[in-house]
Amino acid sequence: MDGHKYHTIYMDPPWPIRWQHNDVLQIKQLQYQTMPISEIMQLPIDTIAAPNCLLLMWTTNEFLPEALGIVRHWKFQYDKLYTWCKNNGMGGHPRNATEHLVIAKRGSPPTLRGHHDRAIFNWAQFPV
């Protein structure tokens, strides 16, 4: 590490997803290596995060509790949760077709405020 501190950290950790085998469904394997939760927790986020830092971290439904624990472990304060509602998903009833963006803060990171706030939508539905 070069000692640079980041004010925004955007990440999509390689959660240890395990697909359950199903002879009926054709399951596509992940195209990347995953990491155990313990290794994700050991990522040097504390080393690279500025005192006033915004953390945006993607997680799946399965790993949401762990993601919130990792946020605390890295000394960030949970702020918001955005949910991406996908038009597909895997198995189960109901189908698991969402992912989440955990937003957390350390200190007082700057926020984007101004006359554009009213133009930001909290929900968008697109035709399938």
How would you describe this structure in keywords?
128 residues; alpha+beta; four-stranded mixed β-sheet; 4 strands; globular
Structural notes for this entry:
The chain has 128 residues and is of the alpha+beta class. 15% of the residues lie in helices and 34% in strands. The chain has 3 helices and 4 strands; from the N terminus they run E-H-H-E-H-E-E. A 4-stranded mixed beta sheet has the order 1-2-4-3. Strand 3 (77-90) and strand 4 form a beta hairpin. The N and C termini lie far apart (44 Å).
Query: What is the beta-strand fraction?
Result: 25-35%
Give the low-pLDDT segments: none
Number of helices: 3
Instruction: Based on Cα principal axes, name the global outline.
Output: globular
Question: Mean pLDDT, nearest integer?
Answer: 81
What is the assembly state of the chains in this entry? Answer: single chain
Query: In which range does the helix fraction lie?
Result: 10-25%
Number of strands: 4
The end-to-end distance, rounded to whole angstroms, is 44 Å
Main sheet makeup? 4 strands, mixed
Secondary-structure element order, N to C: EHHEHEE
Please identify the structural class as seen in this structure. Answer: alpha+beta
Going across the biggest sheet, name each strand in turn. Answer: 1-2-4-3
What Rg, in angstroms, do the CA atoms define? 17 Å
